[in-house]
Amino acid sequence: MAAKNLPYAIAFLFVPAMWASNIILVKDLSEDIPTFALVLITYGLGALTVLAARPLLKAPKFTKREWMYGALIGVMVFAATGFQFLGLLYTTPANSGLFTILYVIFIPVIVLIIKRRFSYRPLLFAVIGLIGVVVLSGAWEGVVSLNRGDAFTAIGAVFWALQFVLLEKYSPGLNSVNLTVTYLVFVTLAAAATTLIAENSAYGTMAPQSSWVASLVFMGVVTIGLCFLIQTFVQSKVPASTVAMLCCTQSLFALLFSLILGYDEVTLALIGGAALITVSAALSALYGQEPLIGEEEADGRAADAQGDARTV
Questions:
Q1: pTM for this entry
Q2: How far, in Å, CA of 70 to CA of 25, rounded?
Q3: Counting beta carbons within 10 angstroms of the beta carbon of residue 291, is it exposed (0 to 12), middle (13 to 18) or buried (19 or more)?
Q4: Are 154 and 99 in contact, with CB atoms under 8 Å apart?
Q5: Which of 212, 196, 174 minimizes the C-alpha distance to 33?
Q6: pLDDT tens across 120-155, in order?
Q7: Which residues are CB-neighbours of 166 under 8 A, at least 6 positions away?
Q8: How far is Cα of residue 276 from the mean position of the Cα atoms in its chain?
Q9: Pick from 204, 194, 167: nearest CA to 72
Q10: Where are the domains of the chain?
């Protein structure tokens, strides 16, 4: 990583900590607010936050490319968030953080599949992560403690990995603010449709509370709007492998918050599984990642974007 990009990487450390705190807040709110209604509210607030910031950040007009790629990334973010939020109905924040971070292991595997190239290292690191999951589950003691919430979260991790891959491939040359707005808007619309169809019957049992307001505003403005904007911008400057490495700290933050708030107890399985998964993710980020596009292609896309006069 070039020295000039070091400040971006350091600034990005704010994001995993906020995403870990988001897991705690979702765990609390999901008991009272239907899953996709929660996605709708938080991503809607996030989209409005970034949209309101466009004049301050001097964002140009939206381009067709930004809407097209934003919709594609939005599909992945919607699926990832939906599975992660559903998972938190059944699992603890610590497990959610640990299973979510599996996306760092999935990223190099997905890249190898796209490039149709075999490499033993991503597979080796994935095996280490799988061993961590087995240790975390307690299967080595003859008692399996994993549940469907863990499975939902692991599926969500696949979609988070796809989001990272798509951002690396398409964000260079596009305006970070506009691209963030487009995929947050798409997630909001998808969540609105889903909650109206699948969760309509749950609205009658909801009892809105004033205590929700601060949590929802923090989630929407900070952990969704601000953090996704930072991620989109940083990934246009810093290699995805570096960003993924920094994201490994999310599982540690989630584990720490979960232990402090009493959602989990310190056990050998929890510590051992967390260590293996985190090490696997770190190795995958450091040694298992290959860039999807080279510097020349990235520069070419930037030039194309500057010459793209067609706006919507």
A1: 0.79
A2: 26
A3: middle
A4: yes
A5: 212
A6: 776 777 778 778 777 776 655 555 567 899 999 999
A7: 69, 72, 73, 76
A8: 20
A9: 167
A10: 3-197+213-306
